[in-house]
Amino acid sequence: MKHKLLIIILVILSLQLLFRAYQYKDNYLTKFNPDYWKARYLHSQWVIPDSKESIGDDGLYAHAAWEYIHGKDPSLLNAEIPPFGKYLIGLTEIIFHNQNIFGLLTGIFVLISFYILNKMIFKNTLLAIIPVTLLSSDPLFYNQLKAPYLDLLYLGLLMTTFIFVYKEKFLFANIFLGLMMATKASSATFILVVAAILAYQLQMKDYQSIKKFLMYVPISILVFILTYTQYFILGHNIREFLGLQKWIIIFYESGAKGDPSAVWQIIMSGNWPNWFGPVQKVTEWNILWPLSLIATLFYFYKVLPQRRQYRSVLFGFWIIIYSLFLSLVPVWPRYLLLLLPFMYNLSVWVLSKNMPRLLQRYH
Fold first, then answer.
1. Integer distance in angstroms from the first to the last C-alpha of the chain?
2. Is-contact 121 114, C-beta < 8 A?
3. Environment class of 6 (CB within 10 Å of its CB; exposed 0-12, middle 13-18, buried 19+)
4. pLDDT at 255
5. Residue 280's beta-bridge partner residues?
6. Span 122-146, mean pLDDT?
7. What's the CA gap between 110 and 115, in Å, rounded?
8. Residues 100/297, Cβ–Cβ less than 8 Å
9. Which of 130, 132, 164, 280 counts the highest number of beta carbons within 10 A?
10. Residue 357 binned pLDDT confidence (cut-offs 50, 70, 90)
11. Taking a C-beta distance cutoff of 8 angstroms, is the pair 248, 79 a contact?
């Protein structure tokens, strides 16, 4: 019965991916036109403040990626976002002559990484595949597959960092942390991920691992700096680099302010209290969001106060720390991509620990 159920879930997962690939086939087959996207950018709100010809993040990244991969200074175009992800988008534009397939490739990267993480938690193939299936069927996930957004790459790099933390391969953990920093929100990423890892290691009372991890932390900073190699080749020095990072921090600090309740309203009801207009409905919202939050809170109640040493507490600490961060910044619904997979994992964890007892009680 267990093997049959596993096969059914794998078939569902595979069919979902094939369906999405077919659904977005036009996105993947349309040839990238650098001249078109350059013109779109030059007439957009990024160049003309009152422009009515706005361009989304996907178009901005596609244009910047093409320019970066052809040697443009990353501090002169879309400098507020670090360059690593855009270099990868640029590679897909050259290899596949299409920018959107980047979304599909990073989606597959996330699902594979998430399965490996789940297997480390559950040590059971069936339980490991269930959260992957839940994530793959979430509209917030599969809507990212059709365009060159950076959120799935960002999530996949976080998962890979956690994988190497579990393996106690801290050199590789910090390499992937550095790449994550070089994809989005570099300074915030560094602080949040390091805080979650240290909290996990303290919970596990693994003081030797804390020392080893901290010893390799400078590697993440070095990797982050190396993604700006072209910036230095073009004549910039380390002082200018630090000035650029300071400018990025000021850029976000001077922007819109967040609503501390926004992330919770989005999860519980699908209402998004944004900073640029009336409350909007999040079209990707589904009932699994509030249910997984409730299960996650139950996990916190059962595990964290008793200081139990489960590997899954890393996910718990990440959810707490990242949620606090989202309470301080303007939230877009897609930011929940860094919460939902781990909430799905903890939900399955809670059910796997409690369902046998409930079934036994009412048998």
1. 19
2. no
3. middle
4. 76
5. 272
6. 94
7. 9
8. no
9. 132
10. low
11. yes
Name residue 273's amino acid: P
46 Cβ contact partners less than 8 Å away, ≥ 6 residues apart: 55, 60, 78
Average pLDDT, whole number, for the chain? 93
Predicted structure pTM score: 0.94
Question: What six digits make up the tokens of 173?
Answer: 């953990």
Decide which of 307 and 150 is more confident: 150
27 φ, ψ (degrees, to nearest 5): -65, -40
Percent of the chain residues topping a pLDDT of 90: 82
- CA 177 vs CA 15, 71, 101, 116, 183: distances in Å: 32, 25, 24, 17, 10
Helix axes 101-122, 125-136, angle to 10 degrees: 150
Which H, E and C letters describe the chain, residue by residue?
CHHHHHHHHHHHHHHHHHHHHHHCHHHHHCCCCHHHHHHHHHCCCCCCCCCCCCCCHHHHHHHHHHHHHCCCCCCCCCCCCCCHHHHHHHHHHHHHCCCCHHHHHHHHHHHHHHHHHHHHHHCCHHHHHHHHHHHHCCHHHHHHHHCCCCHHHHHHHHHHHHHHHHCCCHHHHHHHHHHHHCCCCHHHHHHHHHHHHHHHHHHCCCHHHHHHHHHHHHHHHHHHHHCCHHHHHCCCCHHHHHHHHHHHHHHHHCCCCCCCCHHHHHHHHCEECCCCCCCEECCCCCCHHHHHHHHHHHHHHHHCCCCCCCCCHHHHHHHHHHHHHHCCCCCCHHHHHHCHHHHHHHHHHHHHHHHHHHHHHCC
Which tens digit of pLDDT belongs to each residue from 38-91?
999 999 999 998 888 999 999 999 999 999 999 999 999 999 999 999 999 999
Distance CA 54, CA 78 (A): 15
Average pLDDT over residues 227-247: 96
pLDDT, tens digit, 9 for 90 and up, residues 174-227: 999 999 999 999 999 999 999 999 999 999 999 999 999 999 999 999 999 999
| CB hemisphere CA count around 336 (13 angstroms) | 28
What is the bridge-based pairing of β-strands 271-272 and 280-281?
A: antiparallel
Amino acid symbol at 298: F
